[in-house]
């Protein structure tokens, strides 16, 4: 009985001193989509295009590659771009940043938190939820929806539709 009590006390101590949660995201390809799903922590995700590959980086934490992707570092994956036309992402709760530095369309749900979104050169659809979000569509005919909070949206070039407390370059 004493060993069991000591073991339970050790387990409780280890749980009490566990560090803070770290951000993590999963990335995979299921053409025509590059899919990114993040947990409820602050992620800093950037997608770039290099030749026939998509490079996905999470400066906020870990990145776990799935089908069509290979890890090159604990927070970087390279994915096959063949047949991919759209980035689909759900960043989960937390103060997240998602940057689409590609020619691909994107459909992004930013989750609760004060989030940042930077669209690419194609059409982007970005939806913030609770929190004070800043959304920038850049080129393309974008739809930017701030959600609850004091949000700002800048459509950039193109025929953009925006729903936020502060809007710029929107129709």
From TrEMBL:
Signal peptide (residue range): 1-23
PROSITE patterns noted in UniProt: HEMOLYSIN_CALCIUM (PS00330)
Transferase keyword on record: no
UniProt KW keywords: Signal
Pfam families per UniProt: HemolysinCabind
UniProt-recorded Gene Ontology molecular function terms: calcium ion binding
Protein's name according to its UniProt entry: Hemolysin-type calcium-binding region
Organism classification: Bacteria, Bacillati, Actinomycetota, Actinomycetes, Streptosporangiales
